[in-house]
Write a structure and sequence with these properties.
Layout: E1 2-6, E2 19-23, E3 33-43, H1 45-51, E4 68-75, E5 87-90, E6 93-95, H2 101-104, E7 115-116, E8 128-132, E9 137-138, H3 145-165, E10 173-176, H4 180-192, E11 198-201, H5 205-213, E12 218-220, E13 230-235, H6 241-249, E14 250-258, H7 276-280, E15 285-288, H8 294-306, E16 313-317, H9 321-329, E17 336-340
Parallel strand pairs: 10-11, 10-13, 11-12, 13-14, 14-15, 16-17
Antiparallel strand pairs: 1-2, 3-4, 3-8, 3-17, 4-5, 5-9, 6-7
The structure holds zinc ion (2 copies).
One zinc ion binds at residues 96-97, 99-100, 102-103, 111, 113.
Length: 342
């Protein structure tokens, strides 16, 4: 099969084509698994963290991609949930142990044996992939293949982030960064919290303009002070400055939720600007969001179909995965980027 594979860790600023198009062996179908013919796969900022070594794959080469939409092509022994021809999705959570206290307590995202699709095992930048039937999702009809793909990571992680803010209707929400996850959070907020104003901080004017089109009440640069204090902020940027600035904009008792698997170190010295009375005093909180659970994915898919959310997508052929990744690196983003594979 054709696949875009990662063979070595590198810096995207120097190496603009980190993935190689190769012919590789088709995956082997095991008991309890489904074999998917991949139709579409979302491109996520986390792929940059894998390629640049901030969250490196444990073995190389690996096929990235963790927002996978495919048709079931074959089933292994004991598979009863899906049959040939069904359309299913695969998300960042490829597996978890199922036995530890986190798995048993509804926090499988925190499992020590958490395995991520497209990092710890081969993902969806390919014509085929396999996954356990227990970690595959039926996809609502209302979404096309390319629309469904970004819901599986950007949407699900946005859903988890919003849940972790503890936001109530009418409270003000800030979003720092406005990529795939941010724009899906905005759709959700408009539906779930109609009286909540959303304030968007983004470096690129293209992102700010897009946020205003979708109904943000205010947009500005990450350096700017928001016109009102915010009750919660979700940070989806890869750097530190927006974290410090977001704390300054938080209301007393407010919470900052950092949705980033890793942060880049380029502006880490900005953390030295952290001033206790300005940024933390008055019971301000910081919480990170780690991975997703299957309940986040299904919860979000149900909500997205009910609203319904129509994600804004930019579509690329599989061969152009490097171009899509570079555009994310350079923040040339409008909504979510998706590879169409078959
Ligand atoms: Zn992702
Ligand atoms: Zn576990």
């Amino acid at each position: 099969m054709k696949a875009m594979i990662l063979t070595r860790i590198c810096d995207l600023r120097e190496e603009h084509n980190p993935l190689e198009l190769r012919d590789v062996m088709d995956p082997i179908l095991n008991k309890g698994e489904v074999l998917l013919r991949v139709r579409a796969c979302g491109v996520c900022h986390t792929e940059l963290d894998e390629i640049e070594g901030r969250t490196p794959p444990p073995r190389l080469p690996v096929i990235p991609g963790h927002q996978v939409v495919g048709r079931v092509e074959g089933t292994g022994g004991g598979v009863g949930r899906f049959k040939k021809g069904d359309r299913v999705g695969v998300a960042w959570i490829y597996s978890a142990c199922g036995r530890c206290k986190f798995c048993r307590g509804g926090q499988e995202n925190l499992c020590a044996d958490f395995r991520a699709t497209g990092r710890d095992v081969d993902g969806g930048y390919a014509e085929y992939m396999t996954v356990s039937q227990d970690f595959a999702y039926a996809l609502p009809e209302v979404f096309s293949d390319v629309e469904a793909a970004p819901l599986l990571c950007a949407g699900a992680i946005g859903y988890r982030s919003l849940k972790l803010t503890g936001l109530r209707d009418g409270q003000r929400l800030g979003l720092t960064g406005f990529g795939a996850a941010g724009h899906l959070v905005l759709f959700m907020v408009k539906h779930k919290f109609p009286r909540t104003g959303v304030y968007v901080f983004a470096r690129a004017e293209k992102e700010r303009e897009f946020a205003r089109e979708l109904g943000a009440v205010w947009t500005g640069d990450p350096d700017e002070a928001s016109p009102e204090k915010l009750d919660a902020v979700i940070d989806t940027t890869p750097v530190w400055k927006p974290v410090v600035e977001a704390l300054r904009n938080l209301n007393a008792g407010g919470r900052l939720v950092v949705n980033a698997i890793r942060k880049e170190s380029v502006d880490q010295d900005h953390l030295l600007k952290l001033d206790y009375p300005t940024h933390l005093w008055m019971e301000k909180e910081i919480k990170s969001v780690a991975n997703v659970t299957r309940a986040d994915v299904t919860g979000f898919l149900t909500l997205a179909a009910e609203i319904p959310i129509k994600p804004e997508v930019e579509v690329y052929p599989l061969e152009d995965a490097n171009r899509a990744l570079l555009e994310i690196k350079e923040r040339r983003i409008r909504g979510a980027k998706v590879l169409r594979i078959s």
